[in-house]
Amino acid sequence: MRNLLGILIIAIAINTSLFAAEAGMPQLDPKYWASQAFWLILVFTVLYISISKFYLPKIKYSLNNRENKIKDDLEDANKFNDQSEKKIKEYETIMENAKKDVAKIYLESKNILDKDIQTKKIKIEKEIENEILKAQKEIIELKKNSISSIQIISKDIASKIIENISGERLNESSIKAAVEEVSKKNIGKYL
Question: What domain range includes position 59?
C-alpha cells in the first residue's frame, strides 16, 4: 500500500508543473532532475565508498582493539583474582600451620618447663630433707654435748650453792657423782 502511494505521488509530481519551480527553485524543475540525480548518485557513491573503505575500517579496527583490550583486561583481572585467591588460601594455610606450630611449641615448652620445675622441686625437696637431717643430727649432738655441759654447770652451781649455804667447800667428786646420778635418771625425758 505504501509503495502504491509513493508511486502515485511521484507520477503526479512528474506530470504536473510544480509551483515552486516557477517561483525560482530550479531543483524542483523536472528538466534538471536527471542531472541532480546523477550528482546525487555520484556524491553518495563517493561518500559511501570513502566511508566504507577508509573510515569504517579504522572505526572497526578501533572498536576491535577496544574490545580485545577489554577482553584482555578482563582475562588479566580474572587471572589476578585467581592468583589473589590462591595467595589468600596459601596465607590461610600458612597461618593455620603457624598456629599449629605455635601450639606445639607452647606445649613442648610447657612440658619441658614442667619437667624442669619437677626435677628442681625434687632436688630442692632432697636438699631440704638433707638440711633437716643435718639439723636433727646437730640437735642430737647438741643435746648430747649439752648434757655434759649441763652436768658441769650443774656441778658448779651445786657446789657454789652448798658453799654459800654451808660456808664450806665440799668434795667435787661427790658433787659430780650426785649430779651424774640425777641427770641419768632424768635424761631420758629430754632426749
Answer: 2-190
